[in-house]
From TrEMBL:
This is Phosphoribosylglycinamide formyltransferase. It is an enzyme of class 2 (transferase). NCBIfam families: PurN. It comes from Acetonema longum DSM 6540. GO terms for molecular function: phosphoribosylglycinamide formyltransferase activity. It catalyses: N(1)-(5-phospho-beta-D-ribosyl)glycinamide + (6R)-10-formyltetrahydrofolate = N(2)-formyl-N(1)-(5-phospho-beta-D-ribosyl)glycinamide + (6S)-5,6,7,8-tetrahydrofolate + H(+). The keyword Ribosomal protein does not apply. Catalyzes the transfer of a formyl group from 10-formyltetrahydrofolate to 5-phospho-ribosyl-glycinamide (GAR), producing 5-phospho-ribosyl-N-formylglycinamide (FGAR) and tetrahydrofolate. The lineage of its organism: Bacteria, Bacillati, Bacillota, Negativicutes, Acetonemataceae. Residues 9-185 form the Formyl transferase N-terminal domain. Pathway: Purine metabolism; IMP biosynthesis via de novo pathway; N(2)-formyl-N(1)-(5-phospho-D-ribosyl)glycinamide from N(1)-(5-phospho-D-ribosyl)glycinamide (10-formyl THF route): step 1/1. N(1)-(5-phospho-beta-D-ribosyl)glycinamide binds at G15, S16, N17.
């Protein structure tokens, strides 16, 4: 797949979004290649998901570095080693600094379980329930230096039902995430996403043929 964009996946946990990306690639709904999966936690299930998949899996632990800057330099070096075109955060539970983001400007993507700018940060599902909204959802966005504040690529709504707990709502949102995230990555890989200030413009595919 020499013409396919190379993805670098950063994950801290179970890796369900990583799995949805791998599934989309296998089904040819996403024309990309995973160049490397990196976790900051050696016990992360995300690393186990790629065993036997011919995908490099690397653990880079924050505690082994004297500073956040050194840690992020190691992340960047590993991504550069694998010639990554797009950095995909899939449950990566660390905020990335300005130096890292400048190295991959416009090439770091994240998904968040709310309709941003509502309910950024941790426990977004509980935030939605506590606020009493009738609709929540998920948002794919480019990453900037804020907390879930980068330019929005795609969003999809999910109903919040009266009997919902945070866990039930999280699972309903996650099912939508598994469709929306590969779709947004595919748009990037096709060259259809253009940043214009805070707006992400969707360009017609034909203009890139």
């Amino acid at each position: 797949m020499p013409d396919r964009k190379v993805l670098g996946i950063l994950a801290s946990g179970r890796g369900s979004n990583l799995q949805s990306i791998m599934d989309a690639i296998l089904a040819d709904r996403l024309q990309a290649k995973i160049g490397v999966v990196i976790s900051d936690k050696p016990e992360a299930n995300a690393l186990r998901r790629v065993i036997g998949m011919d995908i490099p899996a690397v653990c880079i632990e924050r505690r082994k570095f004297a500073s956040k800057q050194d840690f992020e330099q190691a992340l960047a070096a590993e991504l550069k080693l694998h010639r990554v075109d797009l950095v995909v955060l899939a449950g990566f539970m660390r905020l990335l600094g300005s130096e890292f983001l400048s190295r991959f400007a416009g090439r770091v993507m994240n998904i968040h379980p709310s309709l941003l700018p509502s309910f950024p940060g941790l426990e977004a599902q509980q935030q939605a329930i506590d606020y009493g909204v009738r609709v929540s959802g998920c948002t794919v966005h480019f990453v900037d230096q804020g907390v879930d504040s980068g330019p929005i690529i795609l969003q999809e709504a999910v109903p919040v039902l009266p009997e919902d707990t945070a866990g039930i709502l999280a699972e309903r949102i996650l099912a939508v995430e598994h469709v929306l995230y590969p779709r947004a990555i595919q748009l990037f890989c096709q060259g259809q996403l253009k940043l214009a200030g805070r707006r992400v413009l969707l360009e017609e595919r034909g203009s890139h043929l």
